[in-house]
Design a protein that fits this description.
Layout lengths: L8 E2 L3 E5 L5 H8 L16 H12 L8 E7 L8 E11 L4 E8 L8 H15 L5 E6 L4 H9 L3 E12 L2 E11 H13 L8
Parallel strand pairs: 5-6
Antiparallel strand pairs: 1-2, 2-3, 3-4, 4-5, 6-8, 7-8
Helix pairs in contact: 1-2, 3-4
Length: 201
């Protein structure tokens, strides 16, 4: 169900491109930031080698591919070309046409709508091009920023799993979000009927 090659997706301000080996320093900047990692399901990285190992796992997609990962890169202005985050489709169940989405943007770029812009691009690609019937997300219920990003893309909160993650000494819950194809299609129709309206608004 996933493509053998990661395609580049373009939005008004971003390019979502395949990860590269030379992204390791940028990824380490992300994953070594305690504030960025506050609600992630693995600990803060402390060594560049950890980022290199993680990047290697992301780039070894398997056959058939088990996940697809994008680097979120600015495409406008003085910082054009800067990697500011990542977005991923993973936990694919091809028989059910289902996948999970994950995303993160460096905190120096929070509050500018980049996560929502990237997420909407991947959601549209997942339904329109890859043919998924359902996309899911699992976030810490305290992560209000990610919740807003998902809700802007049309996801609805569907449940809560108590004490699902243990990272270090901290136990946390999971809020489960879902978006089904029919709801996504309805939002697309509304957007096409009202010129200038974005489904993520």
């Amino acid at each position: 169900m996933l493509p053998t090659e990661t395609v580049t997706l373009h939005t008004a301000r971003l390019a979502l491109r395949p990860l590269r080996e030379d992204d390791v320093a940028s990824l380490f900047t992300l994953y070594s930031d305690p504030e960025f990692m506050r609600y992630w399901s693995f600990p803060v990285m402390t060594r560049l080698e950890q980022a290199a190992e993680y990047l290697d796992r992301l780039m070894r997609r398997g056959n058939p591919p088990a996940h697809v990962n994008w680097a979120i890169q600015l495409s406008q202005g003085d910082q054009s070309g800067e990697l500011i985050g990542t977005c991923t489709l993973f936990h694919v169940v091809a028989s059910c046409r289902r996948a999970e989405i994950g995303f993160g943007v460096h905190r120096s770029h929070w509050g500018q709508g980049y996560a929502a812009e990237a997420t909407q691009a991947v959601v549209d690609y997942g339904f329109d091009t890859l043919g998924f019937n359902r996309l899911e997300a699992d976030i810490d219920p305290r992560n209000t920023g990610s919740a807003r990003t998902l809700e802007r893309a049309g996801f609805v909160r569907e449940g809560l799993l108590r004490e699902r993650w243990i990272v270090g000494d901290e136990v946390s819950d999971s809020a489960l979000y879902g978006l089904i194809r029919s709801d996504w299609a309805a939002r697309q129709q509304v957007a096409h009927r009202k010129p200038g309206m974005c489904p993520a608004d």
